[in-house]
Write a structure and sequence with these properties.
mainly beta, nine-stranded mixed sheet
């Protein structure tokens, strides 16, 4: 056996010998002097109590009613950064009350400089933005106390909400899931305050459980200080929804079971024109459809959709592909984004661990294969999905049917995903995926697999075995992975071995490259250097080795780099690599051909991003070096100007120059965006992209009014044209949705 194959096995064995981090002692908080430990997770997990009230609080953000003063105060937040283990520099006090209709959370967020709030947006879910770049208060609720799954709600000082679900102890998250939460905030001279009303009909819980308790954690972010603090203290590497390390909320007695049946019909009118629009797609049209949601059990939810429409979804970001492999485009359609974590299978990653491969390399179920063909929509007639928990089981079942088009037969898509917790931090799972054409056996494709995930303190182990069945395939239709990763307060070490067969073809998934054995190793460190302007220095080395199934070297990359994190929030990343690429079949780049052969070349890159918490932020990246038989130079830049919390202007440019013996060419993408929020219920956005490779200009404009809980009005313009030439496609759409709860 070659040294290359022995190394990952040796690394995994070595990782198993590393002393694991001790579990935080479950001692009384009074036994620890808060703010004196430098390890946040050494503190005991806190406990708090909710108070039943006979009259619901008025949700106005002010916390001026007597019932709030009678509730227990949950406070003493501990920093995860910039000073891990220290008390938060700005005090936070939270109170929790409830009645038969809802859970109510009131938070007083004191601030010594209220003028220093950083608010990036008023838009719900802050599309395209990170909550890391703003002041927020967040709550995570583990309603089944399984220490694995959660609902999460975050709010900024002006009342903009971001909500979602997390699964499998934060391994997967779904911020497409919307809770009908009511939130109001108020700005004060001594800080800001927030009130949340989370209706019992909007979340799942076990109403029949005795001594009801929820897992709970809360996050406070003060962006100007680059400070994060938690009620249940966490290390910097862990998110607020790491529920295995959360605290506990008790006192939730006699919560009634609420019916959870809702319907969301829509109506739309649209007009399509342009030289590229033909047949029945051209001209004025109208349509209608609906989604329904029903709580089958406290843990299982049924979703159904009829005549699904996604016309309000933003167009994909234009990108440059300088590789010989396909690009992965993320799902943006709400119906598929919601509960997506229940169906995830493939090269999953853990936050803050370098693991060598991600879902952008391989996923057995990628919902973009449903209702899209060649980037164009395919009508979805109907579909259903059941997801949730049954005891120690996590369940996901999906079935969708698409209509026939001029070039594609109608199809049916079915997915069954099961995952079972077998011990704390350990789960086993299985998945089955079927794609079939209506009325014909052509195109029949099945995929299946089993996977396992183990978490032992800072050590994680994961692996999968998968297979496909495709008509006419005669080669290897299997795939497998074994990986291990360890990260503590100093070290970040990972390794994996993957194998993808030459005929492995997940018909409802995505695989970047087949006929390959992939070995990956990395060793890195991350420490606080004790220098005032630096939060963390993280050097690393990593190596990828790809061989064909015939054991011929296909690709190799050895890379060294360093990531610098500044107290201001800015980052600097520098790296250099030595690569080898073997081209088995020639491929074209903008008309130039890369012939077969082996190519060795070096690359280097530098990326600087200023603090996104400032009103004006910018980033620049420079990279270059060899490129097969030639050279490549790439320069990228972006900026964001936060004119106010209502208005933001963004721009980006990605310029690439390739020099080959056959000639020189450039391939670039430019984009600009303006977003305006009239309030937390009315927004407008304009996005313009130019792709030099195809000489096309894409314009997307959207006006959105939230006229009720999870109910919207959209006015959307989408246009694609040749620069200086004719309009290829233009669509104007008016769409109205309304959520009705029974």
């Amino acid at each position: 056996m070659s040294l290359r194959r022995l190394l990952p096995a040796a690394l995994i064995a070595a990782l198993l010998t590393i002393p694991l981090e001790p579990v935080a002692a479950q001692q009384s908080p009074s036994a620890v002097e808060w703010g004196t430990l430098d390890d946040p997770e050494a503190y005991p997990r806190p406990r708090g109590r909710a108070t039943r009230v006979s009259q619901a609080p008025r949700i106005d953000g002010r916390l001026d009613e007597a019932l709030w003063q009678e509730a227990e105060v949950l406070g003493d937040f501990i920093q995860s950064q910039p000073n891990p283990g220290a008390l938060a520099t700005e005090a936070t006090e939270v109170r929790v009350v409830y009645d038969d209709q809802a859970l109510y959370i009131g938070a007083m967020l004191y601030d010594s400089d209220p003028s220093g709030y950083v608010v990036q947006s008023l838009e719900r879910d802050y599309p395209s933005l990170s909550t890391r770049d703003a002041d927020i208060f967040g709550v995570t609720l583990d309603t089944f106390l399984d220490r694995r799954n959660s609902f999460i709600v975050m709010v900024n000082p002006y009342g903009a909400v971001r909500d979602g679900q997390t699964f499998n102890d934060s391994r997967n998250s779904d911020f497409g899931f919307d809770i009908p939460v009511e939130v109001q905030t108020a700005r004060r001279e001594d800080g800001w305050s927030a009130e949340m009303r989370i209706p019992w009909t909007g979340i799942r819980y076990d109403a029949g459980a005795a001594d009801q308790a929820f897992g709970l954690n809360m996050l406070r972010r003060v962006r100007r200080k680059n400070e994060d603090s938690y009620w249940a203290p966490l290390e910097r590497r862990d998110p607020a929804h790491r529920m295995s390390k959360a605290g506990t909320l008790t006192g939730l007695d006699d919560i009634p079971r609420k019916g959870t049946f809702s319907a969301k019909p829509y109506f739309l009118a649209d007009d399509h024109s342009g030289s590229g629009v033909v047949g029945q797609e051209r001209g004025f049209g109208a349509d209608a459809g609906f989604d329904i949601k029903y709580g089958l059990t406290p843990g299982l939810t049924l979703d159904a959709t009829v005549n699904t429409d996604f016309s309000q979804v933003e167009v994909d970001q234009e990108r440059v592909n300088l590789t010989r492999f396909p690009l992965f485009f993320p799902e943006q359609r709400d119906f598929f984004v919601e509960n997506s974590g229940a169906f995830t299978f493939g090269d999953q990653t853990e936050r803050n661990y370098r693991q060598g491969a991600s879902l952008r390399d391989f996923t057995l179920f990628h919902s973009r294969r449903i209702g899209l063909a060649g980037g164009r929509p395919v009508p979805i007639l109907a579909g259903g999905r059941m997801s949730g928990t049954m005891g120690d089981w996590e369940v996901g079942v999906l079935d969708m049917r698409t209509d026939a088009t001029d070039s594609l037969a109608g199809e049916n898509f079915a997915v069954v995903r099961l995952r079972r917790k077998v011990a704390d931090g350990t789960d086993l799972g299985a998945i089955f995926v079927d794609r079939s054409s209506m009325g014909t056996d052509d195109g029949e494709n099945r995929s299946y697999g089993v996977d396992a995930n183990v978490r032992l303190g800072a050590l994680i182990l994961n692996g999968y075995l998968a297979g496909t069945e495709t008509a006419g395939a005669t080669g290897d239709q299997t795939a497998g992975r074994l990986g291990a990763a360890y990260r503590d307060r100093t070290w970040n070490v990972s390794g994996l071995v993957r194998r993808i067969g030459d005929d492995f073809d997940p018909g409802v998934g995505f695989v970047r490259r087949t006929n390959v054995e992939h070995t990956y190793l990395t060793v890195g460190a991350h420490r606080q250097p004790g220098i005032g302007f630096l939060t963390e220095v993280a050097p690393y080395v990593e190596g990828h080795y790809y061989a064909t199934l015939g054991d011929t070297l296909a690709s190799r990359e050895i890379k060294a780099g360093v990531d610098l994190y500044f107290t201001s929030g800015a980052t600097l990343n520098a790296s250099g690599s030595r690569r080898f690429e073997r081209v088995i079949e020639p491929f074209e780049i903008n008309g130039g051909e890369i012939p077969t052969g082996g190519y060795a070349f070096d690359e280097a890159s530098l990326e600087l991003q200023s603090s996104a918490g400032e009103p004006f932020s910018a980033g620049v990246s420079v990279s270059g070096g060899g490129y097969f038989q030639g050279d490549r130079r790439s320069v990228g830049g972006s900026f964001r100007w936060l004119v106010s919390h209502r208005l933001a202007v963004q721009g980006s440019a990605d310029y690439n120059r390739i020099d080959l013996p056959t000639g020189t060419f450039t391939s670039s993408v430019y984009a600009g965006r303006v977003k305006f929020a009239l309030s937390t219920r009315a927004f407008a956005a304009l996005n313009v992209q130019y792709n030099e490779a195809v000489d096309q200009l894409v314009t997307y404009g959207r006006f959105n009014v939230i006229h009720g809980p999870l109910s919207d009005l959209f006015l959307v313009l989408t246009e694609r044209r040749e620069l200086g030439g004719p309009v290829l496609e233009r669509a104007v759409t008016l769409k109205v949705t309304r959520l009705v709860t029974f």
